[in-house]
Amino acid sequence: MKKKLGLLVIVLVAFVGILAGCQKDQKAGTSPEVEKKDLKFVVVPKVVHPWFDEVNKGAQEQAKVLEGQLGVKVKIEYIAPQTADVTEQNTILEQAAATRPDGIAVDPLDAEGNKQVIEEIRKQGIPVIVFDSPSPEGSDLTSVGNDFYEQGVIAAEKLAELLNYKGKVAVMQGFPTAPNHQQRYEAQVEVLKQYPGITVIDGGISNDDIQTAQQQATAILAANPDLAGYLMSDASGPIGIPAAIKEAGREGEVIAVGMDSLKPILEEVKGGVLSASSATIPRMQGSMSILMLWQAAIGVDIPKTIDTGIDVVTPENVDDFLADLEKE
Q1: Which residues contact 241 (CB under 8 A, 6 or more apart)?
Q2: What DSSP string describes 220-253?
Q3: For tag attachment on the chain, is the N or C end more exposed, with fewer CB atoms within 10 Å?
Q4: 286-292-294 Cα angle (round to 5)
Q5: For residues 109 and 58, what is the distance between their CA atoms, to the nearest angstrom?
Q6: Taking the mean position of all CA atoms in its chain, how far away is CA 132?
Q7: What is the C-alpha separation between 187 and 205, in angstroms, rounded?
Q8: How far, in Å, CA of 200 to CA of 256, rounded?
């Protein structure tokens, strides 16, 4: 794996400089210089989780790039719900909006449950985008993320191949109403059902919590001594499920394919408990979210979709991913 975020930052330095120059040229007829003011953006993830810590790192890195190019202070307020609770997330969004930030990036727990609050914030003139999520149906919100359905397909096809297209497979849900988790889960089930030799069973619900994922997987493993494979739809499953597999002494017996590329997940691929992982790139999502919010804040039209890509982690390339983490 190449150092994608480092390359992205280099490109964005030039891109930000070009855009800043364009803004100055556009306003040259009325003012010799663009008005400079400090900026504040708020990032609201689903819940406290190591994956979102990586998103925050990307957001902070992009803020430094903007500061260097614009000559202003760019503050990132990262506010994570303590639990994956829609009411708590909405309260955070409302409190964030009351501080009049220049933009808010949110990873919705529930497209419908968050809809009204997001609409009210936008009516106040505060730009809002979603990250790690498709744009809610019927909205014109910009989405920063990847093709979550494709990500689920990649994981399911990999597992099916490893199982030689036969055996009992458990599929664990993440937070059931989260749009990205829904799309991954639906993709995985649909792919597996194409193969007559594979039986799909309920793999539990993690609610995007590592301990819950482990507890759910422990119960599924105990109830299914003939289980051949395990899939998951969030970044908690690939940490909790391998722990349950090891606790049950079933390494090498139950083949698991994960989601994402946090260090604990990479270590499970390295150790062989996870056979592969279909991974998003969280730092790039954080970085691009801040870049899009800045453009929206200065009145630039922004794309409906920003695709930050999918990595596929395997035993053959996992050392490259781990080496990249050591450089950071």
Answers
A1: 172, 213, 214, 217, 230, 232, 256, 258
A2: HHHH-TTEEEEEESSSSHHHHHHHHHHHTT-TTT
A3: C
A4: 105
A5: 21
A6: 4
A7: 16
A8: 14
**Residue with token string 């109403």:** 177
Say if residues 2 and 16 touch (Cβ distance below 8 Å).
no
- Residue 36 is given by DSSP the state P
In a structure prediction context, what are the per-residue pLDDT tens digits for the chain, which is 328 residues long? 443 444 344 345 444 444 444 444 443 343 334 468 999 999 999 999 999 999 999 999 999 999 999 999 999 999 999 999 999 999 999 999 999 999 999 999 999 999 999 999 999 999 999 999 999 888 899 999 999 999 999 999 999 999 999 999 999 999 999 999 999 999 999 999 999 999 999 999 999 999 999 999 999 999 999 999 999 999 999 999 999 999 999 999 999 999 999 999 999 999 999 999 999 999 999 999 999 999 999 999 999 999 999 999 999 999 999 998 887 6
108 in Cβ contact with 130 (< 8 Å) = yes
Amino acid at 123: K
Closest to 294 measured CA to CA, from 139, 116, 69: 69
Q: Exposed, middle or buried by CB within 10 Å (0-12, 13-18, 19+), for 327?
A: exposed
27: its two tokens: 């306003």
312: helix, strand or coil: strand
Q: What's the DSSP call for residue 135? A: P
DSSP 321: H
The token pair that represents 270 in the structure block: 């390295």
Listed residue (284, 277, 324) closest to 308, CA to CA: 284
* SS3 of residue 143 by DSSP: strand
Q: Which two tokens stand for residue 72?
A: 């202003």
- Cα-Cα-Cα-Cα dihedral sign, residues 207, 51, 245, 198: positive
Question: What is the rounded CA–CA span in Å between residue 280 and residue 219?
Answer: 28
